[in-house]
Amino acid sequence: MEQSQLDWKRFRAAIRLPDRHHAPKAPDRAATADAVSPASSCHPATDCLQQRLQANAALLKAAGSHLEWLSALLGEQRHAIALADADGVLLTVIGNWPEAQSLGLAAGQIWSQDNTGESAIGAALARAEPVLAACQTRACATAPIRLAGGKTVGAIEISAPVAALDASLLLLAAHTAQIIGQALDTATRLAQAESLKLLALLSSFTAHELVAPLAATKTLLDLISLDQLPPKSASMVAAACSNTERLLQVVMELRILGGSHDRCFRTTHLPRLVEQAIAQAGLATVELDNALSARSTYIACNPGLLNRALLNLLRNAQDAVADSGRVGVRLEEADAWVRIVVWDTGPGIPPQHRHSLFEESFTTKPGGSGLGLLLVRAIVERVHEGRLRFEPNRPRGCRFQLWLPLPPA
To answer: Distance between CA 296 and CA 91 in Å, rounded?
Structure first.
């Protein structure tokens, strides 16, 4: 019991609520949310509710059972529980309060977040924190629903008669919103796992079907190029050879994503490999800091694939800084690992996108495939049994760390 009381005090302190035994009485209760009025900014129902429901199907599915559980917990106390999307549009409302609809608590109603002083839902969405408010018609406890990466995807609001205003309602709303956010994260991870599995199967099948005819085509083109050809024909054959080599490179990448690659390790001078990748990326000025010992200068790796991973990261850094920033690479030994750090002073990755960094389809480039970082991760973790980590660079930019295992001394 003592631990339960301690948790409640910690929660109350975190959301800056007054002590529940000294909560203000109506009509002054709106002060707990800086004079937010929960009913004054309700707009007419949106005309595209069905589209809203379809767009927020995952949110509705994740929230459904938890909203019912919350309603059952409140029991016979008059209440209405509303689920809103990120724009403040009510998606569904459940409960046992007959007057709820007349108070604007109905699916399709829009609770504006343009004026956070007039809408509890709008205030919770805009501030990304719980709000407790009251007016003459009702009291409400509102909490935003947030994903692990910090993105706010909606809000949950518990409405009740003004006399029922209590900080414990806010605790319930915040707890339920947290559970719904976690359920959404879990569903997203499961969907991504299935998507990655399908991507691996398709990649492996496609690579298997393409590798033989492409290799044969490359051989034939090489044989044709040995003949004395007219200049125009020789140029066309050379272009065909170059494109075929590029297609074979794509097939190799598909095999990596599909898990059907060959390790083909050999002892490689790591600083020289990094210098080659920098030259291939076309970076004229890169700050290369080599802190490797004699033991870690040579590593066992697939040099072609590791070069590909470094090339992807260097090109990303080059695109990020354009002509006004810095790009650097640091090589260092850390216990039984070699660490390659590729950093830049570009704009960096927004916090809300960092959790999606290594997922398929993630890209910040117009027309990008979203497979670049996914390929880097596959090369580092699947092929080399290493680790790939991201962290913000200070004061700005990105830092990608490639950890590669060293053989036993």
So the answer is: 58
